[in-house]
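Incident log, structure service

09:12 report received: a user says their structure output differs between two submissions of the same chain.
09:20 pulled the input from the user's history:
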Amino acid sequence: MKLFYRKFGQGNPFLILHGLFGQCDNWQTQAKAIADKGFEVYIIDQRNHGLSPHDENFNYNAMSSDLHELITDLNYDKIILLGHSMGGKTAMKYAQDHSQKINKLIIADIAPKFYPPHHQKIIDALQAVDFGIIKSRKEASDILSRYIADLGTIQFLLKNIYWKTDSQLEWRFNLVSIINNIDNVGAEIEFSSISTNLNFRTLFIRGEKSDYINNSDISIIRNNFPDAEFVTIPGAGHWLHAEKPNEFLNEIIRFISE
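09:34 re-ran on a clean worker, output below:
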């Protein structure tokens, strides 16, 4: 699948993968800041998100394959790869499938373990938005707020609304495929044995207020990523790059500059 992307800067290739219900444009601020440090930064829409194609097949095997097709088309031998949440699992899967392509790996607030489905409230909210009736983002926001208390989450979801036609709003993401495959989003990235070939430097960044990476996960992660470093961003939750952008960027730039 040919993925949509935006490119910033020139230098060593640095690719960024968003999380569930996200899109590449969520990462423009970070991409521009990293590009200013001498990197060629690509922010990428994963399948069923943003401007990339929609498909009923939605799992980490497919998303790793999509990423490899893009990297092959760009003709890169080595890349720095950053993924947040679902994008982090895609990045770990890609690193497992194509370890020779990884220069450095950055995983933002996700572990390779299985996560039970926990997005039902958001899915219920999204399904309640009927674009056959609703004709404005304000109306969509009002409906989402009946299900979701956090204003930041509502604003994040609203960024996915676009005018499909002059009179018809729609979601950028493929809601039907996401719902049908929601169990795959939380799937474990399985490693057949203790990895000996994933010796590239890896940075795991977690939010202090997030429970996605617990202390008990660290030893398991190190079994598969032996050269892993762990950093916790104080005061940040799961969307640490949006909640604490300066602190997040400082850690990224430190890691890629070493």
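09:41 both user submissions now match this output. Likely a transient worker issue. Closing.
09:42 reviewer note: Residues 66 and 235 are 34 Å apart (CA to CA). The chain has eleven helices and nine strands.
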